[in-house]
Amino acid sequence: MREGFGFRSLHPIVAIVYYAGGMTFGMLLFHPAVLLAGWLGAVLANVALDRAASLRRWAVPMLSGIVIVMIVNPLISHRGRTVLTYLGDMPITLESVAYGATMAIMLLNVLTLFVTYRLVLTEQKFLYLFARLLPKTALVAMMATGLIPRLRRRLGDLTLVQRTRGITVTEGGLAHRARSGARLLHSLLAWSLEDALQTADSMQARGYGTGERSAYVSYRFRARDGIALAALAAAGSALLTGWAYGYGLLAVYPRLETLALSGGDRLVAAVYFIYIVLPLGWEWRDRSAWRASNWSR
Amino acid sequence: MASIELEQVTFTYPDADRPALSRVSLRAAHGEFVVLCGASGSGKSTLLRLIKREVSPGGRVSGAIRMDGMPVERWASREAAAAIGLVMQHPDNQMVVDTVEHELAFGMENLGLERNAMRRRMAEMAGFFGLEPLLSRRTDELSGGQKQLVNLAAVLMLQPRVLLLDEPMAQLDPLAARELLGMIKRLNEEWAMTVILSEHRIDELLPLADRIVRLDRGEVAFDGTPRAYAREAVRRSDPAWRLSLPAVTRWALERETAASRGLEPPLSVKEARSWLEASGERPPAPGVAASSMPPAGAHPKHLNQALLTAEGVFFAYDKHAPAVLQGLEWELRAGDWAVLFGGNGSGKSTLLQLLAGLRQPQRGKVRLAGAKLSRISPAERYAAIGYLTQNPVLHYAHDTLREDLRQAARHAGLPDPAAAAERAAEDFGLAALLDRHPHDLSGGEQQLGALAMTLMSRPRLLLLDEPTKGLDPLAKLRLAEHLTALHRQGTTLLLATHDVEFAASYATRCSLLFGGVIVADGAPDAFFQDNLFYATSLHRLFRTQGRAAEGAGAR
Q: Which of A118, A128, B177, B208 could form a disulfide with B169 if both were Cys (CB 3.0 to 4.6 A apart)?
């Protein structure tokens, strides 16, 4: 769908560089404000690509993961000088709360970006990128990503039917639920492994592994790809420089520094935001071209 | 020279005491359409897999398998992979990558074809199959029939000389199966493709095939033309043979008179009509056709009160999706053996799940003997209403059938689960399989096992979703016997199915689901009489006869 339009029309190399950079900086930079700026960009990318439909689908699992990180960090880490309160005899420190929160935002940012990754870097592009380097690994990785939706659908079917025989995770005591959950996963895996054998047969039957593979899909490296790559490289090196000078980093331990942004921090936040939304420029360009041609008609 | 030739092939699986195939000799000429039939476990798949050497099972093999005169193991690996195409049973599991277009290209990539050559073949094949609108779709969004069509096209991309199909229609509904079959026939006729297709339900294949080969426990039991097969099947009193014939053929051959003895046995409704005329058999009145079928279970009048009622049921899967059921009103009476027909995606499965209380309707309610289903506790609800889904694998959760049955018995609150499991297995003829992994059972065995589990709680009502899908005629007969026994004991049955012949033989009531509501509902005879599509072939045969008679009378 909508391949060849906007962001999705960019060469797979550009896309993989973009995501590699976006996620690396998402993990290198460690300041809630900077990461929030990046997250805002990632949300915009989601909106531009599919009106955030996939993002909304993932919202609940994502948010619950984040909440867990936020809660768990102060409970297991007691570093830091500023003690807020005691839970029993366990000190809860401001620093570990702040660290947990920043971690959570970092996670939120990376995951949100990853949702668009699934939309932009289709398996076809992924295969194109890695097939030459690591043909087998590429295929395995690609099949694995394709497996997730299938597993999810199957788990739904399985849960529905198994409920009739009392194997359910929504009723009964905790132990029963846990046992039922394990049972469900166990059957799901047994079933899927069984099917995977047939998939393997189908691959072999169509000559997989009989020699060097060729690639059906080809992507031309166009001018827009060159421009995008250059722009990403420029933004990336600016970010790297900023990071090397210590901007965009929040010193949490041993004592939380002020959350106020320095000039350098602000610059890093702005550049990171720009980096994330950069490919949306083509989305905008192609859309306006489309509008223009509609008007002229 | 034969395209594929097997000479005295004997094959034994490791650890098996009996060969899976013994001294099988078989020739398929260029452009021949060979149908390989036989019950489940007769060695059909093993045979096809031995021909397709990339997926050959491990084991001891003797004899020779040749393609175009050369043993298959001597062909270069790429050529062999391309020259013999294989389509398997499960549409889902054969798909490797994400989009249809890439799936079609997958084989060509494996062979290292040039990009331009690939594009050209893609254009041709997509045109032939009419797949252009699907090319950019994700493979997991397709229907079962579309998936199987894509699998077939993906194999043909390699331009095979021989096409092997291993029960390609077993998982499809009859309409999709017919479409796939039409495509296979076209390939065979227009491209002179050699086709070897294995299937245990061959009534639709008899008119199309050039040759029928029947395997029986690994040995060739029959090899000849479809018409010769029909005669042979009737000559033998074995139900496994007889039941494999189309209903009209069976009907005609069972009524053979001196005048009709010289005629070719009819294989389709059209042929049956001219057979009737030529043989001088008097066209029976439509009512006779019905009475020639096994009598439907006796219908005790006192049980006629409503057991399960649906009142204005609305259901949609998503708030943006169109409603599957739109104010459906229906009622199942105690003692019914009801059958629910309906096209693909008409909501049959959804309705069954709603009636079983597995899903809640957004509007309207379902009542069990007057009580609202949502008010009954889940455990009680599932005990009273047994539900069997299309895919019996879903019912299993343990590593052996015994463990699964025992868990079901324990869940039903039976005093001695282990003994109950043994007894249930005995009743369903599964005693020898108790210690097998459920996934290693055949489809029919899985189905019976799931039925045994569901029956542990002695449900008053049993809902079955497509129970005859993928079953061979004998397995179907066994299932029918169990269901008949249950019905006689007073269990109310509801089957959602595409299998008109099965329904006609057993049901006491037929209903048709269309547009989210029940549009036809009545006794089987009246129901089939008024239908052209949802009608048995015998009904169709006599309907045309009846019409002709009426027309003559009017003139």
A: B177
Tokens representing A117? 């990754």
pLDDT of res. A251: 86
Where does B184-324 show beta strands of DSSP type E? Answer: 194-198, 211-216, 219-224, 306-315
| Contact state of B110 with A210 under an 8 Å Cβ cutoff | yes
For the record, the structure tokens of B104 come out as 């079609």
Q: Is B360 on the interface with A (CB under 8 A)?
A: no
Question: Helix (H, G, I), strand (E, B), or coil: what is residue B212?
Answer: strand
**Domain locations in chain B as residue ranges:** 2-92+160-240, 302-522
Superfamily of domain B2-92+160-240: P-loop containing nucleotide triphosphate hydrolases (3.40.50.300)
Q: Shortest CA distance to A275 belongs to which of A77, A38, A103?
A: A38
Q: Which two tokens stand for residue B175?
A: 């309409």
Chain A nearest-CA distance from B96, in A, is 7
CA distance B205 to B197: 10
Interchain contact, A209 vs B114, CB within 8 Å: no
According to the model, what pLDDT value does residue B281 have? Answer: 64
Does residue A145 share a domain with residue A97? no
- The answer to whether B156 and B125 have CB atoms below 8 angstroms apart is yes
Residues of B in contact with A124 (CB under 8 A): 97-99, 102
Q: How far is CA A25 from CA A38, A49, A242, A249, B102, in A?
A: 9, 22, 11, 11, 33
Q: Are residues A226 and A282 in the same domain?
A: yes
**3-state secondary structure at position A88:** coil
Residue B491 has pLDDT above 90, yes or no: yes
Q: What are the backbone angles phi and psi of residue B472, rounded to the nearest 5°?
A: -80, 165
Is A195 in CB contact (< 8 Å) with chain B? yes
Cα–Cα distance measured from residue B445 to residue A3, given in angstroms and rounded to the nearest whole number = 46
- The whole-angstrom separation of Cα B248 and Cα B244 is 12
* B 142-181 residues inside an 8 A Cβ radius of A: 151, 154-155, 158
For residues A226 and A182, state if they share a domain. Answer: no
In the DSSP assignment, the letter for residue B445 is H
Cβ contact, residue pair A205, B90, below 8 Å: no
* Domain ranges, residue A91: 6-122+221-296
- Amino acid B243: pLDDT: 86
Task: Specify the CATH class of B302-522 in words.
Answer: alpha beta
Angle at B211 (CA atoms; ends B210, B217), nearest 5 degrees? 155
**Cα–Cα separations (whole angstroms), residue B300 to B151, B281, B307, B521:** 49, 36, 14, 19
Q: Does B306 score more than 80 pLDDT?
A: yes
Residue type, B545: Q
Question: What is the spatial order of strands in the sheet that B509-514 belongs to?
Answer: B385-388, B461-465, B492-496, B337-341, B509-514, B517-522
Phi-psi domain of B150 (left: phi exceeds 0; alpha: psi -120 through 50; beta: other): alpha
Task: Provide the pLDDT confidence category of residue A236 given band limits of 50, 70 and 90.
Answer: very high
Closest Cα to residue B484, out of B242, B292, B290, B298? B298
Gap between the Cα atoms of B129 and B259, Å rounded: 45
Same domain, yes or no: A92 and A228: yes
Residue B195 contacts residue B182 (beta carbons within 8 Å): no
Determine contact: B408 vs chain A, CB below 8 A. yes
Portion 127-146 of A in contact with B at CB < 8 A: 127, 142-143, 146
| SS3 sequence of B127-175 | HHHCCHHHCCCEHHHCCHHHHHHHHHHHHHCCCCCEEEEECCCCCCCHH
The region, left, alpha or beta by phi > 0 then psi within -120 to 50, assigned to residue B295 is beta
Q: How far apart are CA B154 and CA B122, in angstroms?
A: 9
Residues A12 and A82 in one domain: yes
Q: Which of B94, B89, B4, B119 is nearest to B52 (CA)?
A: B4
Residue A210 lies in a domain: no
Average pLDDT over residues A231-240: 95
